[in-house]
Design brief:
It is built from ten helices and 19 strands. The chain has two domains: 15-59 and 437-461, no CATH class; 60-411, no CATH class. It is α+β, with helices and mostly antiparallel strands. A hairpin with a 3-residue loop joins β3 (102-107) and β4 (111-117). Strands 1, 2, 5, 12, 13, 14, 15, 16, 17, 18 and 19 form an eleven-stranded antiparallel sheet that branches. α1 runs antiparallel to α10.
Length: 469
């Protein structure tokens, strides 16, 4: 009777172990389903959701850090045709995106529109010096006339105002504006930035299709751009980069649109990194995004003129003239991923992907961007000219870097703890419950199964022994 009880107990244990392991297995899809439904609900852009609260909040600080290129040998460049020797000065740091979205309006087609106010407040504690620091840099007016009008006429304006190829300006003047003596008007790399608005944007709320959440439907009332002579390059793809649809797929790129670069662009998965205890997917801008049309045909419609790039073979630079209305060229800092020709005419540039690439750190379950660094460089053009006297000694066409900016933001410690408490800890708890049930059930199942086999073998052995006796 004891042997039977023992065997029955082991069989029962085997069944129980199997059921426990099965329960753990069932919890995986059920748990994933529960989590998926919760994430979908909280990722929709509507009042009361986590996504909407994050989307409308300005608690996370966003900074713009500027590095300006200071010319060390301006006289040698003009009089001897020497290469400009550059030293970057910075960062000069400003707090931005501290003004909440304006005119948030919901529509029946599951879209929401808003305006994005712009502003910048100087932060001396995060800067290398005051805004009054002097920088020797390219004369914006001279460079503009060089590219925009006949050189004979440009020379008349330059001589009349005694303008030079390089000028000395404060950081504040270069960034936010000064009255140029030649043009008698205000110039500045970000002149009139404060007290302006970007948009309106119209984006999908994700209520009817979570895969479309935050995707831009319209920008400035239009579903496409008009800068480029091609419908492909004029497409507005993806979100504004602040969030994406939940449950990211590493194999798929993320698309986002940025008015700063006048186009849509994509980022690709590079690896998983830890951000304050949260695993995030790091996406970076691939080198193909700025390749020449000769190497990447998708970029063919961004090549708008041949003065800079003969046969559109120059990589790493985007002509923003059609978008901005003045001759300015966009690149990554220090011409990262650019053609070697861009660096040959300058000294002092050292492109480094770790410092100069664009990155997005996105939490893969929710699709929220928890850290970003948007790094861009503004450049202008000058070169040899027989008609413009101050350019007579210049030897080659030069795309000159004026400054580069790192617009960056990351979730603070309080938000990180809230995020981990509301989501990550619950996911970890569910995961460990699943693993615990699977392991415990499997151990019980295997142990009882082995015990059952042993008991059966012992019983058979005793029967055989009894027969022999």
């Amino acid at each position: 009777m004891t042997c039977c009880d023992q065997k029955c107990g082991l069989i029962a244990g085997t069944v129980v172990g199997a059921l426990i392991a099965l329960l753990g297995g069932i919890l995986i899809p059920v748990g994933d389903l529960i989590i998926g439904d919760t994430v979908k609900k909280e990722a929709v852009l509507e009042n009361g959701t986590l996504a909407f609260d994050t989307w409308t909040s300005v608690d996370t600080a966003v900074w713009r850090q500027f590095w300006l290129f200071d010319v060390q040998n301006p006289d040698d460049v003009v009089n001897k045709g020497a290469k400009p020797v550059l030293v970057q000065k910075g960062p000069y740091t400003y707090k931005t995106r501290y003004i909440p979205k304006k005119d948030i309006t919901f529509y029946d087609n599951n879209t929401v529109s808003f305006l994005l106010p712009a502003g910048a407040i100087f932060d001396p504690s995060m800067s290398v010096g005051p805004e009054e620091d002097i920088i020797t840099t390219l004369n914006l007016a001279v460079a503009g006339l060089y590219s925009a009008i006949p050189h004979g006429l440009a020379n008349m304006f330059i001589n009349k105002s005694n303008s030079t190829l390089f000028q000395n300006r404060t950081v504040k003047e270069l960034l936010w504006g000064y009255k140029d003596p030649m043009l008698n008007s205000m110039l500045g790399l970000f002149y009139d930035y404060n007290n302006t608005v970007d948009g309106p944007y119209t984006v999908f709320t994700g209520k009817d299709d979570i895969n479309k959440v935050a995707t831009i439907e319209r920008w400035k009332y239009n579903t496409s751009l008009s800068y480029w002579n091609d419908s492909y390059c004029n497409m507005i793809n993806g979100t504004d980069g602040s969030s994406f649809s939940p449950k990211l797929d590493k194999k798929k790129p993320l698309y986002f649109f940025s008015p700063d670069i006048c186009r849509s662009i994509s980022a690709v998965y590079e690896g998983t990194v830890d951000l304050k205890g949260i695993d995030v997917y790091r996406y970076t801008l691939p080198s193909e995004a700025l390749e020449s049309p000769a190497s990447n045909p998708d970029n063919h419609c961004y090549c708008t003129e041949t003065k800079v790039s003969k046969n559109c073979t120059l990589a790493g630079v985007l002509d923003l003239t059609p978008c901005q209305g003045y001759p300015v060229y966009l690149s990554l800092p220090h011409f990262l991923y650019g053609s070697p020709d861009l660096l040959e005419g300058l000294e002092g540039l050292n492109p480094n992907p770790d410092e100069h690439s664009i990155i997005l750190d996105v939490e893969p379950i929710t699709g929220f961007t928890l850290r970003f660094a948007k790094r861009l460089q503004l450049n202008m053009l000058y070169g040899p000219s027989k008609e413009i006297v101050i350019l007579n000694k210049i030897k080659k066409l030069t795309i000159f870097p004026l400054m580069w900016v790192n617009e960056t933001g990351t979730l603070d410690d309080e938000t990180a703890e809230m995020f981990k408490g509301e989501l990550i800890s619950k996911l970890d708890l569910l995961k460990w419950i699943q693993i615990g049930l699977l392991v415990a059930g499997s151990v019980i199942f295997v142990a009882c199964l082995i015990g059952t086999i042993v008991v059966s073998c012992n019983k058979k052995s005793k029967k055989k022994t009894g027969l022999r006796g």
